[in-house]
Specification:
single chain; 411 residues; alpha/beta; Rossmann fold; elongated; CoA-Trfase_III_dom_1_sf; CoA-Trfase_fam_III; transferase activity; Formyl-CoA transferase; CoA-Trfase_III_dom3_sf
């Protein structure tokens, strides 16, 4: 079994060109959406300087389970970044931010609309300093519209985007996906926007632009046929538990030791699935040859599959269906992922050493690029760890930095 790649904080992995090498990013966001976009750009070579508030820094440092006083989530979200602790409420702090942004290619922020403007850092003002600057703005409802000033977190975006209504068993309370999917979807859409803007700037002349991503819009963009079905038929899609409404069979089925997902919704796949579970009668039934007929009898089909999976172990079900070329899979836990040979074979589990010397298993890098792969070049920084180095690179002298520290502008 291939071992997880060992990535020390001061040693880069084997050298290879990186797609975003030379791209300078200033990240002013916190928690999830903005920083996830920064992480993604950093994984592919961008030089990311994260500006954090004095004192405690990004609240994500204290979210969920802590090790050595810091969240292990932070170790994932902030790899390949430098930390500058700066008080943006003070004019001197705003001046330093301008100096950093003036030399940047990309600015990322996910504050409530108007926050940058209140600091004298409106995009128009920043573009006057740096015409090629690309500004990624992620917020709950976007920079315009009647809801722009309302507070919005990912869970609210998931609700407004239409997702939360569907994540439930029929008649039961809507549940969250289990991770901050709204924030992550917004971050990924924002990252796509940054890459598009970088390409446009290079191909069509140096103008920058503003990318406006709303949390609910990123979720809504992934809602498939939700609105066309309402438009054409007045159909309001309702919760369906683990089933895939209008497509059958595709569901979770009980086994002796857990649950298995089975997707037998292709016409030929369905026939192979029914043969594998000993229901040749259903395989040969002309009413079930197409999806529409199967949807009409979905409960009957699900019951037949569940009757076959119920007395079996998950591993046995997955093995037999794989032999029949039917898509099926175990519902993985964290332990399953950590012990899975396929994850390791594809470098999706990396051993990363924190600044405190602890080794942690981390998610690998997605997507996989053959010529310019991503890599972890540095582990997540301590608060303000890179303040002096970044400010010195921006042209401040040691004396100026010391004075700013004495005034409580930097940490």
């Amino acid at each position: 079994m291939p071992m997880a790649q060992d990535l020390r904080p001061d040693v880069s992995s084997p050298s290879a060109p990186q797609a975003l090498a030379g791209v300078r990013v200033v990240e002013m966001g916190q928690l999830i959406a903005g920083p996830f976009a920064g992480k993604t750009l950093g994984d592919f070579g961008a030089d990311v300087v994260k500006i954090e508030a004095l004192g405690t820094g990004d609240p994500l440092r204290q979210w969920r389970l802590l090790q050595d006083g810091t969240s292990v989530w932070w170790q994932v979200q902030s790899r390949n970044k430098q930390s500058v602790a700066l008080d943006l409420r003070q004019p001197e702090g705003q001046d330093i931010a301008r100096r950093l942004i003036a030399e940047a290619d990309v600015l990322i922020e996910n504050f409530r609309p108007g926050t940058l403007e209140g600091w004298g850092l409106a995009p128009e003002q920043l573009h006057a300093l740096n015409p090629g600057l690309i500004v990624l703005r992620i917020s709950g409802y976007g920079q315009t519209g009647p809801y722009r000033d309302l507070p919005g977190f990912g869970v609210v975006g998931e609700a407004m985007g239409g997702l939360r209504h569907l994540t439930a068993e029929p008649g039961r309370v809507p549940v969250r996906v289990g991770v901050s999917i709204g924030d992550t979807l917004a971050a990924l859409h924002g990252t796509i926007g940054v890459l598009l803007a970088l390409y446009h700037r290079k191909a069509h002349g140096g103008a920058g632009q503003v990318i406006d991503v709303a949390l609910h819009e990123a979720v809504f963009n992934c809602m498939e046929s939700l609105i066309p079905e309402y438009s054409a038929f007045g159909a309001v899609r309702e919760p369906a538990g683990s089933a895939l409404p209008g497509i059958a069979p595709s569901n979770a089925y009980p086994c002796q030791d857990g649950w298995v997902l089975v997707a037998g919704n292709g016409d030929s796949i369905f026939k192979r699935l029914m043969a594998a579970i000993g229901r040749q009668d259903l395989a040969d039934d002309p009413q079930l040859a197409g999806n529409a007929g199967r949807v009409a009898r979905a409960e009957e089909i699900d019951a037949a599959i569940a009757a076959w999976t119920g007395p079996r172990q998950v591993a046995d079900v997955v093995q037999q269906l794989a032999a029949a070329r039917v898509p099926a899979g175990k519902v993985y836990t964290a332990r399953d992922i950590a012990e899975d040979p396929h994850y390791r074979a594809r470098d999706m589990l990396l051993t990363q050493t924190t600044r405190e010397g602890r080794e942690l298993l981390m998610p690998g890098i997605v997507p996989k690029l053959s010529g310019t792969p991503g890599r972890v070049r540095a582990s997540a920084p301590r608060l303000g760890e890179d303040t002096d180095a970044v400010l010195a690179e921006a042209g401040l002298t040691p004396g100026q930095i010391a004075l700013l520290r004495a005034k409580g502008v930097v940490q």
